[in-house]
């Protein structure tokens, strides 16, 4: 759902591999690790658009965007998260949007997977 009636959006579905063309191998490997961790979760659907990969069940619970030097991972929470390692956590509509940025798979800490799992559970 768009926040404003006249908001720009792009919803043409593309192949996930196309989003990662010309991205560093470390970013691709980080995404692969994330994808592997979510593989056994029930009813997860994945869609790719021009700039990001969206994971949803009933609602979107995770948005992954490969940037030039890092992988941006956006998830949602019911309460604000006090974690200095988050890139940001802000109120977004009636929930909180947390953002993690990693430049390689070794930065994907277990607590991040718990944040994502909690986002999945509220979707």
Describe this structure in words.
It comes from Shiella aurantiaca. This is DUF5655 domain-containing protein. InterPro entries: DUF5655 (IPR043714). Pfam families: DUF5655. Residues 16-121 form the DUF5655 domain. By secondary structure, the chain is α+β, with helices and mostly antiparallel strands. The chain has a single domain (22-122), classed as Yope Regulator, Chain: A, CATH 3.30.1460. The chain contains three helices and six strands, in the order ααββββββα. It has a six-stranded antiparallel sheet, covered by helices on one side. Strand 2 and strand 3 (60-66) form a beta hairpin. The radius of gyration is 14 Å and the shape is globular. Residues 1-5 have low confidence and may be disordered.
Short overview:
The chain is of the alpha+beta class. Helix content is 25%, strand content 28%. It has a six-stranded antiparallel beta sheet, with helices on one face.
Share of helix among residues?
25-40%
- CATH topology description: Yope Regulator, Chain: A
**CA radius of gyration:** 14 Å
What is the tally of beta strands?
6
Largest sheet: 6 strands, antiparallel
- CATH class category name: Alpha Beta
The structural class is alpha+beta
Q: Would you identify the CATH architecture?
A: 2-Layer Sandwich
Q: Identify the overall geometry.
A: globular
> What's the mean pLDDT score?
91
The helix/strand order is HHEEEEEEH
Number of domains: 1
Low-confidence stretches: 1-5
Organism: Shiella aurantiaca
Pfam families: DUF5655 (PF18899)
InterPro entries: DUF5655
Domain DUF5655: 16-121
């Amino acid at each position: 759902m768009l926040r404003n009636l006249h908001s720009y959006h792009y919803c043409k579905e593309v192949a996930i591999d196309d989003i990662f063309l010309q991205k560093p191998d470390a970013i691709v490997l980080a995404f692969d690790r994330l994808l592997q961790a979510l593989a056994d979760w029930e009813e997860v659907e994945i869609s790719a658009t021009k700039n990001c990969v969206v994971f949803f069940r009933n609602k979107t619970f995770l948005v992954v965007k490969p940037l030039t030097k890092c992988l941006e991972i956006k998830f949602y929470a019911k309460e604000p998260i006090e974690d200095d390692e988050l890139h940001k956590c802000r109120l977004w509509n009636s929930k909180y949007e947390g953002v993690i940025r990693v430049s390689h798979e070794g930065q994907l800490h277990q607590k991040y997977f718990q944040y994502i799992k909690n986002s999945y559970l509220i979707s």
